[in-house]
Design brief:
- The protein has 219 residues and is α+β, with helices and mostly antiparallel strands.
- 53% of the residues lie in helices and 13% in strands.
- A six-stranded antiparallel sheet has the order 1-2-3-4-5-6.
- The longest helix has 22 residues.
């Protein structure tokens, strides 16, 4: 795998992919799992085989999935290299939910996903399976921490989903889903503070409907 194939995709579709994403794919290849994201094979991304014509907005480029028909995608909103978001396209509603404002921030979310899974494991797993899953999550977390320079000691202090979203917005103040989650949680404690976070979600991308969708779900 080389950068030449990604460059061919960019020339064909006029869609610049983040450098950190291309570097990551060159290192890890396809069918690699981090957090809840299973990254697709580079050739499938480059050949645009993951798109669902007629269902997905043309701004979206899928690069991974969670195994239930929902896809992680880039959403490009401008002509500059950094004019993009990372989020999840929901196959049942065709809504796109913004999760992060950069690919590195998305990988931080993957790190949080892995550690949250250790706090709240899948109920159907046996004790042995949980132990194995936790070991794999820890190994992936250590790998991402070394690769991207994340503060894994801070992440290890996470206790619940509220901490998860607080960590996310402290790392990325345009992480719309987490802003809405904390906005709803805070709304029940302090209405003004709750509205503050919901307004931040709105201001993060006024031109797109994702914040309205999430806020509607949250409130």
């Amino acid at each position: 795998m080389s950068t030449a194939k990604f460059e061919k995709f960019e020339m064909k579709y006029g869609y610049m992919l983040p450098k950190e994403f291309k570097d990551f794919m060159l290192r890890h290849g396809g069918d690699s799992q981090f957090g809840s994201c299973r990254f697709e094979y580079p050739d499938n991304i480059i050949n645009n085989l993951l798109r669902l014509p007629g269902d997905m907005d043309f701004h979206l480029v899928p690069f991974g999935d969670i195994g239930n028909g929902d896809y992680y995608c880039f959403y490009r909103y401008g002509i500059n290299i950094d004019d993009y978001y990372v989020g999840i396209w929901l196959h049942e509603t065709h809504n796109f939910v913004i999760l992060a404002s950069t690919f590195k921030s998305f990988m931080y979310k993957c790190l949080l996903d892995d550690f949250l899974s250790m706090i709240d494991p899948i109920e159907d797993l046996s004790d042995e399976e949980i132990q194995m899953a936790n070991l794999e999550s820890m190994e992936r977390g250590m790998e991402l921490s070394e690769e991207f320079g994340f503060d894994i000691e801070k992440v290890k202090k996470m206790k619940d989903e509220v901490d998860y979203h607080k960590l996310m917005i402290n790392y990325d103040d345009r992480a719309v889903q987490s802003l809405c989650y904390i906005g709803k949680w805070m709304f029940n404690i302090d209405k003004n503070k709750g509205l503050f976070y919901l307004k931040k979600a709105y201001d993060a991308c006024k031109y797109y409907t994702a914040p309205y969708y999430i806020a509607g779900r949250m409130l």
